[in-house]
Amino acid sequence: MLGIIGGSGLYEFEELKVVEEVSVKTPFGGASSPIIVGELEGKRVAFLSRHGKGHLYPPHRVPYRANLWALREVGVDRVLAVSAVGGINKLFRAGDFVIIDNFLDFTKGRESTYYEGVFSVDVEGNDEVARLLREKKVVHIDVTEPYCPQMRTLLMDILEERRLKYHPAGTYACTEGPRFETAAEIGMLEKLGADVVGMTGYPEVVLARELTMCYASLCVVANPAAGISAHRLTSDEVMELMSQRERDVKEVLREVIRRLPAEKTCGCDRVLEGAEV
Ligand code: HPA
Asked: Which domain holds residue 185?
């Protein structure tokens, strides 16, 4: 089943015909919001609000491990995340979509793995993830290509057909937040090859991958990043842009749900092969 994680400005997906609302207790604590399991286009889909309804969780305190675990518990094996980002690449304008293909991690101290070796939690279940945790294994997953190529291709096809302006690749720098960046930090990130900046893309992507889920991110440039913009940054600016884009985002989501084939052509679900020490 596809799971959608809604970021800033996307707290609900009203188009879903709700089947059930699930509050999952996980070994990693509670998720940011109940998971809505619903139907759209004849498919079953799960929706989770990353910051919680009412935007309760700041980026550095989002319970990322609980969120991904909870999605898995309800049967999600592919995640599509929607995120607002600041534009660093001068070709990326406010309102553009970006189908990111790599990331740079500048977060500090977030719990960014399930595999804690001797410190791993005990979980129930007979699958490979549960075995690795129970046997307290050390696991190094490959993240050469962190985002699911099959989902990225579908997103690009949909954006192309709808004539929505998008960038087919981009490197996402994840900062700790919750403050915005300094102009100097953005200058550094630009030199390092970042195209966009956000505060929530990491560790979400790697946690999904550790659970063998496919993960792709539909990023929306909400503002030019600090120092590129001529004015100071505000949350108001980000929210305003995201609300302008809401209709397009939801149309793209609907189309992804309709067209994502059941058969996987990526290798995301084989990431644990050879990963344990
Ligand atoms: N920086 C970090 N996160 C963001 C930004 C930004 O400029 N815009 C939206 N999310």
From this structure: 75-270
